[in-house]
Amino acid sequence: MHCEPFLVLCMSDVIQGPSLLNFKIIGNNKTFYDRCSTNRNCKCSNLTDGILADCSALNLTKSPYFEERVVSVNLSCNLLTYLPEEGYLPAKLKYLDLAKNKISKFRKGELTPFSTTHNIISLNLSSNFLSLDVDTYYTGVFQNLKCLKYLDVSNNSNEDKKYYCPDKVFQDLSSLQSLLIDGVKNVTFGKGFSTLRNLTFLTITGIVAKGIITREYFDNFPNLEYRYISYNGVAHN
């Protein structure tokens, strides 16, 4: 599978890594309701390689449809409880921001998640309700994201629940370079993460960041260049 070069568009106000770059927006930033989305309140802007559809903070409970020229979708700060249904997002989508919604599960159906959006290279699911367990992260949930290079699933864990980090699920993310994820008490990152040879940037958030972390905690991340522990919005390396 051919994957696009990595460039992250920062769309929400979550903390991002040091290697992230912003797109240069061209044109006069005019909104085109009939050019990018079925929701007329979404703002459409020209990018160098397509269209950005900004549908953030609209109190949406369901994703609108997006025009095929859209390469970046911002649905952050809404009321979504699931990922957008298959077919709602354009096939050429590269950047998807779903931060700060109410998503607690990935859909289970005939189509696995992201079946029609194989080209995504940046996915932000931070500040939702996705528990770090095998029920939520079921086998195959990431199997269509072979091109994904940036994944943020931080600030999702619930400290009143026991967790088991489903490391085997993350093995499908063979192109992943940057990962932001919750660390939870008495849980280490399993051997499944050791197959992520391209992963060089890691941020740990959540409960464990408030305690003591030993070197063994990172044994299954063989190629890390940047390692950050974040709590209360403050990152420490």
TrEMBL record:
Superkingdom assignment: Eukaryota
UniProt KW keywords: Leucine-rich repeat, Repeat
InterPro entries listed in its UniProt record: LRR_dom_sf
Protein name according to UniProt: LRRNT domain-containing protein
Source species taxonomy: Eukaryota, Metazoa, Spiralia, Lophotrochozoa, Mollusca
